[in-house]
Each structure stands twice: as C-alpha cells, then as structure tokens.
Amino acid sequence: MTDDRLPLAELMAKTGDGDFLRTIAESVLQIIMEADVDGLVGAGRHERSGERTTWRNGYRDRSLDTRLGTLNLKIPKLRTGAYFPGFLEPRKTVEKALVAVIQEAWIAGVSTRRVDELVQAMGMTGISKSSVSKLCKDIDERVHAFLKRPLAGDWPYLWLDATYLKVRESGRIVSVAAIIAVAVNTEGRREIVGLHIGPSEAEPFWSSFLKDLSRRGLTGVKLVISDAHEGLKAAITRVLSATWQRCRVHFMRNALAYVPKGQNTVVAAAIRQVFLQPDHAAATQVWRQVADQLRARWPKLGACMDDAEHDVLAYMTFPEQHRVKLHSTNPLERLNKEVKRRADVVGIFPNEDSIIRLVGAVLLEQNDEYQLQHRYMQIEGMAALATPTIEEVQPLQITPKAA
Predict the structure, then answer these.
(1) What are phi and psi of 139, to 5 degrees?
(2) d(CA 106, CA 103)
(3) 317 with 391: CB under 8 angstroms?
(4) For a 10 Å CB count at each end of the chain, is N or C smaller?
(5) How many CB atoms are located within 10 Å of the residue 5 CB?
(6) Measuring CA to CA, which residue among 357, 360, 365 is closest to residue 105?
(7) pLDDT of res. 403
C-alpha cells in the first residue's frame, strides 16, 4: 500500500526554507490522492490482490494556486472509470463569480493596486483572457437560467428591498439600485424570484421589474412588503393589484425623526403598544389613541401616523401564524448583508453585467440553501388565505408623504 510517511529530512534537503511549506503541502496532497486511488483500485501500487477492480494508468499534471504559491500535483489516472480529488473540486458559483469580476476589472483597465492585491490574496498568479471568458460564460449561463426561470403556482407574499452598489459608467462612478425579490408560495416555501439593476427607484423601474415577474408566472400575490417608495406603491397597484405592507422597522425610523433623540425611547415604546394587539381592529384603535396623544406635542409625528396607519397595519389582516414575518423586510436583511459582503470585495464594479454575475451567483446559492430548509411559513395559515375570515383592507392609497 502507499507509504503514508512524510520524508521530512529528504524534503528539507531538496528545497530551501522559502519553499519548504509549499513542498510539504504538495507531498501531503499527493499522499491523499494516492490513498484515495488505492481504495478505488482495491490494491496499492504493484500489489497483487483479488479485490482489484481496475489498474492505474499514469498521471496528469494539475496546478493548484494557494497562498503558499502554486502547487504542482500529479492526479492519478485509471484505465476504467475516473478519479478527481475532492479538494480540487471547482469553486462554488459565487467564488467563481468573484474571481471573474476581479479578472474582468483587471482586463478592462479599471483595476487598481487594491484589485492586484485581491487577486494575489486569492492565490492567483496570472490572468488569462481566454480563461476569464470561459469562466464568465459558464457563470452567466447558470445565473441567467436561475433569474429567468418560470415561476409556477401562487405566491401570496412578496418581499422587495434594494441595496446600492457602485459601478463605472462612461468614465464615472455611479450608484445603482440592485432590487432583490423574495416570495413564499402556497406550500410555505421561500424562494428568491428576481433581481433587477437600475439607476433609480422610480415607477417605470419598479413597473418593469414587476411586469417581468408576472410574465415569468408570479401570480396570486396578496401582500407586498417593502419600504415606502412612491414609485413602488404605484407599480404595485397597477401591476399586481395587491395589498402593500409598509416595512414597520423603516416606519419607526421615519417616525422617530420627528422626535428629539432624548424622547425616542419613550415614543417608540408607545407606538410598539399597537403591535402587541391581537387583531386588526384592536391595533387600529390603539394606533389612533397613541397618535392623538403624541399629536399634542409633536404635530408632524401625529400627521405621519395618520398617513401611515393603513399601510403599517396591513399585515394584521393576514393569518396570525404568518404575521411575525410579514410586518417588515427583515427576512431580506441577512441576504442583503451577504450581497454587500461579497460586493465590498470588488468595491467598484466594471459594468452592470458583472453586478448581475456576482449578485446573481450569491442569490443562486442562497436559494439552494432555502430549498434544504424547513418550510418558511406554516401551511395551515396558507389555507386561511382562501377563506373569508381574512379582513378586507382598504385599497392602496398613494400619499405624497411616505418616506
């Protein structure tokens, strides 16, 4: 069988101090591969065994870029079947996308010393244009297939949120909005259903995005949860005919802006009493009482609460089992943080296609994780959506003061 001892003295004699760790790493990985192949073959090198299933057939060279430098490995080949070591498995889609974006920036002539340092930190020693093109093509095909896939069935709940990224455009650096859409279907399963890049959050931008979701099969939307954007509210009314839920967390920030910082805690506690009520009717009653109490001291806060009442409390008319996840865009917060974490490595994207490549890869992998998790919402509550027990909320009112 394969000798599993590392001839340290021999390795030290063959290489200098600077290459010692790299040589050790090469030897360890080679031993791992030889042991794996022994198991597949059923016998060691030059060993006779009745359990042998195939024979070795030489080696093929393969390099592995690491922080220790480039490791030169020899992957064993078999006469029948194939062997490929697990530690050389292709990078995850999102890691490929990150490499591709950095390489693309380098080739496009927009790289800086920071990009160079990033490339080296990722263990890369050179950049080939043909390799970049091949890598980008593979990623783009998978990401576009994911983002353009048909959507089947009904999707009662839809969350929308935007994160801003920097991109080069005509020699300038501008901010663009990356809109991410997450929906839950009638089986209680959560999926990422869309990504859209645009220069602003005006109504045409939102309408185009929502129409694209509808064309792909997004139907049965009853509640859309988002921050307060006038363009989005108008688009929801025209395209989806759904109820709009104003993010409760964002509303609290907007409301407390009318109050001195020293009073924020007291005012926030008063408003939160509304959200502790058991149903929509009780919540509405307490909301108006709190608004009247605060109006005497802060008239603008009282007016803000009057305007936002129906939008902030819309979720209270939906099944109680679902309300904890319907009142805000918090379910998207963790996803947005992951997108920003990956995007911060790049800093400034060379073009919008590179944004879709990287962010789309992050969303693709996150969506795969969603499919392995338990149901995001109880299916019993979904049945209640089809019954008349859900109170009818007032039609969406487009008001000029929503923040």
Answers:
(1) -65, -45
(2) 5
(3) yes
(4) N
(5) 7
(6) 357
(7) 40
- 289-303 core/surface letters (b: 16 or more CB in 10 A; e: else): ebbeebbeebeebbe
Q: Are 258 and 304 in contact (CB under 8 A)?
A: yes
> In sequence order, what are the residues at sequence separation of 6 or more whose Cβ sits closer than 8 angstroms to the Cβ of residue 40?
53, 54, 78, 81, 83
Of 201, 257, 189, nearest to 233 by C-alpha is 201
Amino acid type, 208: S
Any idea what the Cα angle at residue 289 is, between residues 285 and 290, rounded to 5°?
115
Q: Residue 43 corresponds to which tokens in the numbers above? A: 């016998």
Question: How far is C-alpha 345 from the geometric centre of its chain's CA atoms?
Answer: 15
Query: Does residue 38 surpass a pLDDT of 80?
Result: yes
Distance of CA 58 to the CA centre of its chain: 43
**Residue 379 pLDDT more than 50?**
yes
CB atoms near residue 198 (< 10 Å): 17
**Burial class of residue 336 (count of CB atoms within 10 Å of its CB; 0-12, 13-18, 19+):** middle
Structure tokens at 2: 């394969």
Residues with Cβ within 8 Å of residue 89, at least 6 apart in sequence: none
Q: What is the pLDDT of residues 97-120, one digit of tens each?
A: 656 555 555 444 444 445 455 555
Lookup: tokens for 369: 């994780």
Q: Tell me the per-residue pLDDT of 130-172, one tens digit each, with 9 for 90 and over.
A: 555 566 677 788 889 999 999 998 999 999 988 899 998 888 8
Closest to 333 (Cα-Cα) out of 240, 247, 233: 247
Rounded-to-integer distance, Cα 41 and Cα 24, Å: 26
Three-state SS annotation for the chain? CCCCCCCHHHHHHHCCHHHHHHHHHHHHHHHHHHHHHHHHHCCCCCCCCCCCCCCEEEEEEEEEEECCEEEEEEEEEECCCCCCCHHHCCCCHHHHHHHHHHHHHHHCCCCCHHHHHHHHHCCCCCCCHHHHHHHHHHHHHHHHHHHCCCCCCECCEEEEEEEEEEEEECCEEEEEEEEEEEEECCCCCEEEEEEEEECCCCHHHHHHHHHHHHHCCCECCCEEEECCCHHHHHHHHHHHCCEEEECHHHHHHHHHCCCCHHHHHHHHHHHHHHHCCCCHHHHHHHHHHHHHHHHCCCHHHHHHHHHHHHHHCHHHHCCHHHHHHCCCCHHHHHHHHHHHHHHHHHCEECCHHHHHHHHHHHHHHHHHHHHHCCCCCCHHHHHHHCCCCCCCCCCCCCCCCCC
By the 8 A CB rule, do 212 and 386 touch?
Answer: no
